[in-house]
Amino acid sequence: MRPGSVPCPSPSPSPRSTGSPSPSGSFGIPGSPGSLSMNGPMRRRRDFQLPCSPQAPKPPDGHEIEMKYQEIMKNSGILYLDGAKRPVDINELESLGELGHGTCGHVVKMRHKNTGTDMAVKQMRRTGNKEENKRIIMDMDVVLKSHNCQYIVQCIGTFITSSDVWICMELMSSCLEKLLKRNGGPIPEKILGKVAVATLNALDYLKEAHGVIHRDVKPSNILVDERGRIKLCDFGISGRLVDSKAKTRSAGCAAYMAPERIDPPDPTQPDYDIRADVWSLGISLVELATGVFPYINCKTDFEVLAKVLQEDPPRLPRGQGFSMDFCHFVCQCLTKDYKRRPKYKKLLEHGWIVRYSRLPVNVAQWYARVSERAPLTPTPTPSPLSPHATYLG
């Protein structure tokens, strides 16, 4: 245990959660570390690639990918605008400027000229790269099926041509990575309570409704809008679960990767489950609550991965006013032995989550206050190695 860190406190008794919580504010390595070959400092916005194991299910081949495209193309050019589906010509959209870069492409703010509807459009090139095409298909597949979850960014429609794929999404205002920088310091616990409620419910929905694990939970993939809604995005590297376990080792960010993904018991047969995303949520909460990425002193991929495996997990520091429930929740998320780490259902019953599922918090007011602040110059980044993929803001 590090000096100054808080040991896991006992949780407060909490009633069992019933139903989905109300929305907040009304609202994309086999072996041990010794087998790694990683030279040079980690760059920001870099995804850490994990090779697929030899015995993992084969990714879709070119024909299968094309068949999926053809299936999705049946609704290409149909957008959900003003409460109704309508055919839209791609030339009816005008660009209002780039918003950022995601896992598979870049995101542009666009407006439908006839209705004045603004949207975020993720634009991706169709290439001969099977892995890239698989990520595009996965991203589209998840968002198109998640229209009934208030905690996942909503898809308005798609445009698919022989060379490009556009995914039209509802326009959010910013991501937590950028808000942390603009805030110039830690994000209040009451806001993080709503962030955790929204993220947990989104992850639980993906698992229960679609058998999907996100695999890239981090502050840049959690979005906020001016109405105070908090939503999860970027499903390019999500994975299908087989018997509740992930059978491939596709990709992710080393900075938020769970120990069992870095050094699995059997590298040839990865079988981590949704609790890998629970770890990523815990790391994200520590970063947002303290304003500093937990492994900030690491300069290389190897260092951060080695620290995750060899050191005690991060904890919320003492003397900063965090509630005992919040400290315990983070301890639960950052349990190194994933077999002892709680799954979504158990965490949704945690006292801290139950409290913020019910407690009114004006996230919209907090967002307005933070968004009006000029960014600090120079801006202290949460982590020099944190490979966030910028989305919006």
TrEMBL record:
For bias kind Pro residues, which ranges apply? 1-14
> Per UniProt, which keywords does this protein have?
ATP-binding, Kinase, Nucleotide-binding, Phosphoprotein, Serine/threonine-protein kinase, Transferase, Tyrosine-protein kinase
GO MF annotation list: ATP binding; MAP kinase kinase activity; protein serine/threonine kinase activity; protein tyrosine kinase activity
All copies of domain Protein kinase, residue ranges: 93-353
Record carries keyword Phosphoprotein: yes
Q: Which SMART domains match?
A: S_TKc
List compositional bias (Low complexity) regions by residue number: 15-37
- The EC number of this protein is 2.7.12.2
The UniProt entry's GO biological process terms, in alphabetical order, are: response to stress
Q: Name one Pfam family in it.
A: Pkinase
InterPro entries, A to Z: Dual_spec_MAPK_kinase, Kinase-like_dom_sf, Prot_kinase_dom, Ser/Thr_kinase_AS
Q: Which Gene3D superfamilies match?
A: Phosphorylase Kinase, domain 1 (3.30.200.20), Transferase(Phosphotransferase) domain 1 (1.10.510.10)
EC class name: transferase
Reaction(s) catalysed (UniProt annotation): L-threonyl-[protein] + ATP = O-phospho-L-threonyl-[protein] + ADP + H(+); L-seryl-[protein] + ATP = O-phospho-L-seryl-[protein] + ADP + H(+); L-tyrosyl-[protein] + ATP = O-phospho-L-tyrosyl-[protein] + ADP + H(+)
- PROSITE patterns attached to this UniProt entry: PROTEIN_KINASE_DOM (PS50011), PROTEIN_KINASE_ST (PS00108)
Location of region: Disordered: 1-63
Q: Which family does the similarity line name?
A: Belongs to the protein kinase superfamily. STE Ser/Thr protein kinase family. MAP kinase kinase subfamily.
- Recorded protein name is mitogen-activated protein kinase kinase
